[in-house]
Amino acid sequence: MNIEGLDYNTERPQLLMRAYGRQVQEMIEHALQVEDRAERQACAETIIQCMRRLTPGNGRKRTEIVQTLWSHLAVMSRFQLDIDYPVEIITEKGLNQAPSKVPYPHQDVRVRHYGNIVMQALAELKEMPEGTQRTELLKQTAHRMRRCLQQWTTGSTTNEKLVADIDRYTAGKLHDEAERMFPVRNRSERN
After folding, report:
1. What is the DSSP letter of 86?
2. What does the alpha-carbon distance between residue 4 and residue 173 come to, in Å, rounded to a whole number?
3. Do 81 and 72 contact (CB within 8 A), yes or no?
4. Which tens digits make up the pLDDT trace of 80-111?
5. DSSP labels, 88-128
6. What is the distance between the alpha carbons of residues 129 and 132, in angstroms, rounded to a whole number?
7. How far apart are the first and last CA of the chain?
8. pTM value surpassing 0.90
9. How far is the CA of 95 from the CAs of 44, 45, 91, in angstroms?
């Protein structure tokens, strides 16, 4: 069945940037056909205004938005639109270039279920002088340790385990304070 004026998107050329829609892509195709350079420049500026209305600013700076729009225009025209771009645009080579790798910090975490932050807090607690600041940090670190134990294990998250781990990772320097904060019952009291 062939009805004039009725065509499916599957039969149309593929959109290069779907965010702007088929009408903007058709405007760019029209601009590529314009012979007069001044008229082509005016056509491109009108297309940019239409594209600007279609994309919200999202709090970005105006210069960033303008540069992005002109770069998108160049990409959608397959870098064939011969106009004077008011800003520096992305090049075809820069578009296909892979981004550089982000360096990943490789740290040796001795106790994975607690993580590096808890271990850093325990190391800092070991060096801190007694006082309310140390007590508060110990309390927050111990509660974080309890949550980590609950997430990672189905086993014990008792005060005994917390005090033993705090004692082990601070070389016994906070044993008394941890035991006062999280009292450990004797085995005879449990039965």
Report:
1. S
2. 86
3. no
4. 999 999 998 888 888 788 888 888 877 777 77
5. ----HHHHHSPPPPPPPP----S-TTTHHHHHHHHHHHHHS
6. 10
7. 85
8. no
9. 21, 22, 6
